[in-house]
Amino acid sequence: MDIASIAAEPYPFEFKPDKCALLIIDMQRDFLEPGGFGEMLGNDVSQLRRTIEPNQKLLEAWRAAGLQVMHTREGHRPDLSDLPPAKKVRGKSEKTIGDEGPMGRILIRGEAGHDIIPELYPLPEEPVIDKPGKGAFFATDLQAILQNRGIQQLVVTGVTTEVCVNTTVREANDRGYECLVPEDCVGSYFPVFQEMGLNMIKAQGGIFGWVTTSSEIITALDRA
Known about the structure:
The protein is α/β, with parallel strands linked by helices and 224 residues long.
């Protein structure tokens, strides 16, 4: 496929489809679905659910173009051996990671709430990166997969903008990847964090990456 220029901030992104993967961050049931862990904590899940439809459209176009897709899930082993005590107690909530929640044990691999929402469920050939931290590179094999597949660029979507998306983009930037973030495909429970999270990515001439919209990426896919 040909290189295509995508309108973005702070300046156009030179899109190399054959060297680019779509990385969808933590679109998990416990974070996005009513009655899940996120809502149990008092969050407005509609702020995240607005990202589902744009992600569906982008994912459909990406798959139709035959490009590479990867997904992540934040969670821990059932025996909690990979859960730092500091993370377990953080927030001093009544319910913490590993406790019984609305959809099984909270953020535990294999539980219903840990899984990806049906609307964006991975195909069998799409790698799912199970990560114990916020960033997708920490304690995972993501770097090896990207290197083995010749990936140089990432389109990063998912939740939440200021935490796992931002952390992953920063990790990727330090490893030499060019990251493009479609603002309608990432979400935060807090609108002010959504705005600030995107501003931090594109600040200072794109210190961590570029920000665009899903429609601009889909248009570029059609051109390429």
